Amino acid sequence: MQNRRPTDAEGIDASRYQGSINWRKVRADGKSFAFVKASQGQSYVDPTFETNVKGAKEAGVLIGAYHFLDATSVSAARLEARHFAEVLERVGGAAVLDLPPVLDYETNPAGLSKSAISSVAKAFLTDLEDLTGNRPIIYSGNSFSSNFDTSLGSYKLWVARYSTSTPYDSPAWKQWDFWQYTDSGRVDGISGPVDLNVYSGTEAELREEFAKSGGDEAMTNGEKAALQALQQQITELQALHNMPVPEWAKEAVAAAGAYNPGEPLLDVKSATSYDMYRLIVIMHRMGLFNKNGK
């Protein structure tokens, strides 16, 4: 893989272990981006996640979020993807963040085969993209990344290698997009050690690659369903509007159109069945009565 360059954009990643962060000082210290921990497993939420996102955005630091994977099966990976997506909604969803959501896959406690590891990763990544509308990236250690098959090379790589030597190639990747090169960095605004990272390009190139296009993000499944429901309602309303009025109802419809909202709708004591029908038409035109009788 390629080496770092002096012009590469510098950033950090952080979690609750960094405590309270002064993001303005982090930005002033030359850090242009950050990934912060959002979640882990099927239920854990990092207690500093929302505060870190808010602080970083206010300070002008490009912000992304990561999920630490515990899953040892495809079904568990899908549940974790859903949990991550739900946690992202606490800050407005993945589309609000500047950088792609991250799958942090770096351990194999169950001793899975390489094939199983790749299947677990694919399940998480596919479901997360469906849920958020944003294509994720993969974080992994340089050595662990050799477990992933070549099909996962279509995802951008954030690689961890704590060395001045360049990360080495793996089956899926011949270059990195982000490189975490130390876990003992020092940055203004953070009291203790913090992971340091670089992006494979300048800050301007980083912003250009991941800049939001102001509405061109892919819709989530929920947004698609809401749009389809709205389109169906529009179709139904258009059908009602274009429906011909039968002769026997024209008088009532005309009365509804001419109705003055300042007048009482009906004298109930002397009302006939026809008057009641006209009342229903008037209420429907006023939006007080729908076609289901509610």
UniProtKB/TrEMBL annotation:
Superkingdom, taxonomy of origin: Bacteria
Record-level Gene Ontology MF annotations: hydrolase activity
CDD domains: GH25_muramidase
Pfam families reported in the protein's UniProt record: Glyco_hydro_25
Keyword terms, alphabetized: Glycosidase, Hydrolase
Classification via InterPro entries: GH, Glyco_hydro_25, Glyco_hydro_fam25_subgr
Cited PROSITE patterns: GLYCOSYL_HYDROL_F25_2
Presence of the UniProt keyword tRNA-binding in the record: no
Family according to the record: Belongs to the glycosyl hydrolase 25 family.
PANTHER family on file: LYSOZYME (PTHR34135)
Protein name: Glycoside hydrolase family 25 protein
Organism: Paenibacillus zeirhizosphaerae
